Amino acid sequence: MFARCWFLIFIAFALTxxxxxxxxxxxxxxxxxxxxxxxxxxWRRYGAIALKELIQQKLLEREARERGIKVMDNEVVxxxxxxGLPNNAENWHKVRTELIxxxxxxxxxxxTEAEARRYYEQNRALYEQPERVRLRDIxxxxxxxxxxxxxxxxxxxxxxxxxxxRHFSINPVTRQRGGDMxxxxxxxxxxxxxEIVKRMKxxxxxxxxxxxxxWVIVKLEARFPAERKTFEQVREQVIAHLKxxxxxxxxxxxxxxxxxxxxxxxxDPNLKKNLR
Length: 276
Fold this sequence. Notes:
The protein is built from 10 helices and 8 strands. Strands 5-4-7-6 form a 4-stranded antiparallel sheet, sandwiched between helices. The longest helix has about 30 residues. The protein is elongated, with a radius of gyration of 33 Å. The mean pLDDT is about 90.
């Protein structure tokens, strides 16, 4: 994560001064640890990592300037709030860098028509909808009750289905909706129910069928045939999906890509040796 390591080093220098000193900052069983030792250890452990992150950050900022990309203070504030982070110097710097990277990646991510069509052809199943049905149900605890309700439905040719569902169904999910189960893929129905519904016409209601110890009567309200959306119908959806994939990829790769393109000169021999 950008700024994490170099921030630790910055804090160490702020606490001890820029010049290493022999000031004692800790003791353990009579053994002293000086500010100089702490600085040298931080430098050894994190110096090269922090330097690379700092260089990459500067490269990102330059790239953003050249492309006319800006991150305003209010954008940083809003991002801090969304992430639930305190508004302090470390978080401000981290979030600002993340926003610069996000905007750069979005500006560079492009999806061609050919790429979108190729993705659609390779993933046609994602844009297929199976046959669906809209059903109402009346669920009852016994065969006797189910047969009584079925006879009551016959008297009015099913026009009283919703009314009877509200009064007598024991299904807590659909009862208050007059038995409305919504639109369901035919394949998602219980096998017994699926075979019955396949043969029904819109407006028909079934005979009682036993399912898992309960008795169910269903009414077919509507049938929606299987369909496949064309590329033109889902073009914008496909492009948006592919662009998001590219944005994520660029966010991972862009800092190192800019690093590899830049001419980097490191003067400290220890940092240069450990820099990757």
